[in-house]
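Study this chain:
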Amino acid sequence: MKQHLHTYSIALLLVLAVCQTELHAQGCVAVRQMGGINPLSTSGYTLSKGEFQIGTSYRYFHSFRHYVGTEEQPQRQNTGGGFDENGNEKGNAVNIYSHAVDLNISYGISDRLQVNLFIPYVNNERSQVATRKDPVTKQTVEGIRYSMWASGLADIRISANYLVFDPAKAMNGNLLVGMGVKLNSGSYTVKDDAMSLDQKTGQPLYQSAYVDQAIQPGHGGIGISVEVQGFKKLYKGIYGFANGYYLFNPKESNGTYKSDPTVVTDPTDQSKPPRVLGTLYGYNVYACPDQFFLRAGVMTSVLKSKNLTLSLAGRMEGIPAYDAIGGNVAYRRPGYVIAVEPGVSYRLGKHNFSVFVPVNFIRNRTQSAADIASQNLQNSAITDESAKVHVQGDAAFADYSISFNYGYRLGKLFSKKAADPNPFETVK
């Protein structure tokens, strides 16, 4: 039985080592950084009663590709704005550079129940173009790129996870369920200097303003997370795994100002100015949106010692247009990405290391509640069904992200008995 238990521990370590439920921003679709489960610290699911484990992770991405739905807007890729010497319009892509570091601490209440604390820190930059238009032609004649920054503590998360099946008996697979609380520890009101151009002289003008929701450290509001993870031995040393996560954010908005309310005009009215149909109040403040994450794949050990593991997974993450609980009259950029994620993990005694690189191959900026409200209001004035308008905003996405992770098993800190220096070593 002892041999089986050690073998089970290794299998669970290797499989759960890549079952991460961490969420990170995907550009303008602001999937909030909130201290997700470190892929290595998930080996803590095999913690015995009284054992501790700590971990840290670093993640980076650069978003710059703009999409409306699944259609890319390549004309925005050349940065700078304005027009070149040949009269061709330059691009005005929004660029986001995100760096995030997490500290993760796990404790085994029992051999099947574990509690976790995730403390994230972020440093984000959003680069955009300030433009000036010709007063006669109304065409953009000048553009200057500038950046706004936000950094600090993000939203802390506390969670508990439970193994459904007894690990002493479930040798070839198991299921883990969990719940957590996302705190509103991250600021959602960070300000920086926003640039505009004097429309006559072209001189830069600066004014303090809230940075975009995509780079704010926090959501605002308290959320509840639910998650499930499982693995199954498929053939010899090959394992299949899957995990899913959903964050409920009941609060409708955090009250942070985005812009003036949108005034919707009649698209069939040719007079200047056209007839006003209504004003979309509420959508000019930032939302506290839900988030979701799905992942499934296979993995296997490539060394006899079982210390080196390779994995390949598909993953999907994003923000829905409407929350499952609470109101939806607030601004968000909903959407999702689907990625293929290769990964490698290595264990050396109490030390665990891993690298994961999700590469996005589908990016979709879906219609938001604000888009649909504007669309419905405009279409209420159009009698010709073939002339109905479609309203859908855009968002910038990354090509890939990079995640480096480290974990260290402390053992039983308060036990008189010394901890096993390598509790996952297979008994010969």
